[in-house]
TrEMBL record:
One of its GO terms (cellular component) is extracellular region. GO terms for molecular function: oxidoreductase activity, acting on a sulfur group of donors, disulfide as acceptor. PANTHER family: GAMMA-INTERFERON INDUCIBLE LYSOSOMAL THIOL REDUCTASE GILT, GAMMA-INTERFERON-INDUCIBLE LYSOSOMAL THIOL REDUCTASE-LIKE PROTEIN. Keywords: Glycoprotein. It comes from Danaus plexippus plexippus. Belongs to the GILT family. This is Legumaturain. InterPro entries: Interferon-induced_GILT, Thioredoxin-like_sf. Pfam families: GILT (PF03227).
């Protein structure tokens, strides 16, 4: 940009200053962005985000890190998102279906995201999907949230919903499944920045900014006093600011550094704030470098991105399986579930018989166990993941009769607020048969000779006589979480 033209533009801007005031910081940011583009900025950082729509960690990452970054830096990023996560694609006799970690609603939610990417302009699709994830009511990523986001963003949600309910949604989700499989990840959200894995405990925007060779304006900080518009513009020109640097040094350069560590309900902190700090802030803020730390004597509990993978192969009426579930697995689930990636396979030593187009099962403890196994797989298919695990533990932990039957399903449904009728209907239908067939195939691939058969990060855990399941799980962590150490880390 020609310097004389730039000077004339600043003068014209100042003429309208009183009518259309814009703060110096905001105007400088606008000028920086314009100049940055005029100087031919073509560099973009690539971000690949693999996720599933009901995963709590994915929702948290979307709301607090990914969403704000896309809104503030979208022009400088090459963003690719893959709404599939830890789902599984099942292809049988020309039909395609999906098993999702948080049940069928998540599969449909993933399709809504995939269809938004297919139907909308890319940047608008990203913002639409971020909106779907950030629902304040219910689980989000459903028809109701799609309509709300469409209304807020002036987007027609009907084609997106029709796509998600049709063959196109299935084709798209299959594609994102294939792309996710290539990435070979074990947890979500899984994020790559210019092809390098992002550690979810790091500060996302800072890591993205560090990936640029030449940082764009959103990565720069501007420091300024409360100068008037004319002084600010003249200082920009006199220092060749627009060509040489992004940091502005105020006229009065000396500043005293003040750091205040406090907690918001501490009486002494409140007294100091009102009687001493507030008057100094109001009269001297432009001469001070103030940093406040609202933490005090709190304790810090770290967020762990590391997860241990647990696979449990079992059959619902096996006495050893019931004993392991109640005495060892249940306590670990209740105290450590947020640190674990748990997969259960309710099939055990059953056999699948395919004859004349029909599928039947022979189970070690008779037909009642085959039906009980179907109740378990239908719970996994119908309920959110952690709820399904607890429901199936409840089915196994019967004090009356053998458990894992209709009576126990109703009892557990009442205790947990779950719809047991839908689970029982699934167990009696073709869907229950299809699901048990799938878990049978997965169990066959594991090639075990007994149940319960348990893998911790792919290594066999000997359940015979052992009562140290929690210790074995904790030993699998590189950095054991608080339930393993029985202490909290304090941020000093």
């Amino acid at each position: 940009m020609d310097k004389n033209l730039f000077s004339q533009q600043l003068c014209l801007d100042y003429r309208d200053f009183k009518l259309n005031y814009v703060s110096p910081i905001k105007r400088a940011n606008t000028l920086m962005s314009t100049l940055f583009k005029d100087l031919g900025q073509k560099e973009k950082v690539r971000i690949d985000l693999y996720y599933e729509v009901f995963c709590p960690h994915c929702i948290n990452f979307d709301e607090n890190q990914f969403g704000p970054l896309v809104e503030s830096m979208g022009d400088y990023l090459d963003v690719h998102t893959y709404p599939y996560g830890n789902a599984k694609t099942i292809e049988e006799k020309g039909n395609i279906s999906f098993l999702c970690q948080h049940g069928p609603p998540e599969c449909y939610g993933n399709k809504l995201h995939a269809c938004a990417l297919d139907n909308l302009e890319h940047s608008k699709a990203l913002l639409f999907n971020i909106c779907l994830m950030n629902s304040t009511e219910g689980g989000g990523s459903d028809d109701k949230t799609a309509d709300e986001c469409g209304k807020n963003m002036n987007v027609d949600s009907k084609p997106i919903k029709l796509c998600a309910k049709g063959n196109r949604g299935t084709e798209l989700l299959k594609y994102y499944g294939e792309e996710s499989k290539k990435a070979n990840f074990h947890h979500v959200p899984y994020v790559l920045i210019n092809g390098k894995k992002f550690n979810n405990s790091d500060y996302f925007k800072k890591t993205v900014c560090e990936a640029f060779k030449n940082s764009p304006p959103p990565c720069q900080s501007i420091e300024t006093n409360d100068l008037n518009e004319r002084d600010f513009a003249m200082r920009l020109l006199s220092n060749d600011y627009y060509l040489t640097q992004f940091k502005f040094i105020p006229i009065y350069s000396e500043k005293v550094d003040i750091k205040i560590y406090y907690e918001c309900l501490c009486p002494d902190c409140i007294k100091f704030d009102v009687e001493q700090f507030s008057p100094v802030l109001e009269t001297m803020n432009q001469y001070l470098e103030i940093h406040t730390y609202p933490y005090g004597n709190a304790k810090f509990i770290p967020i762990y991105s590391e997860k241990v993978d647990i696979k449990i192969y079992y059959e619902c009426l096996c006495p050893d399986c019931i004993k392991f579930d109640v005495e060892q697995f249940s306590p670990v689930l209740e105290t450590m579930n947020q640190y674990l990636e748990i997969h259960t396979y309710p099939y055990g030593n059953a056999k699948t018989i395919k004859k004349n187009g029909k599928i039947e099962f022979i189970c070690q403890h008779g037909p009642a166990e085959c039906y009980g196994n179907k109740l378990h797989v239908c719970a996994i298919d119908s309920l959110q993941h952690i709820t399904a695990l607890r429901f199936n533990l409840c089915l196994m932990n019967s004090t009356e009769g053998r458990g894992s039957d209709d009576k126990m399903a109703d009892k557990c449904g009442q205790l947990m607020g779950c719809d047991s009728e839908a689970i029982k209907a699934c167990a009696r239908s073709n869907r229950g048969t299809e699901l048990l067939l799938y878990y049978g195939e997965q169990s066959k691939m594991a090639n075990f000779n007994y149940v319960p058969y348990v893998l911790i990060n792919g290594k066999v855990y000997n359940t015979d006589g052992n009562k140290d399941f929690k210790d074995a799980v904790c030993a699998a962590f590189d950095n054991p979480p608080p339930p393993c150490t029985n202490k909290y880390l304090v941020d000093k």
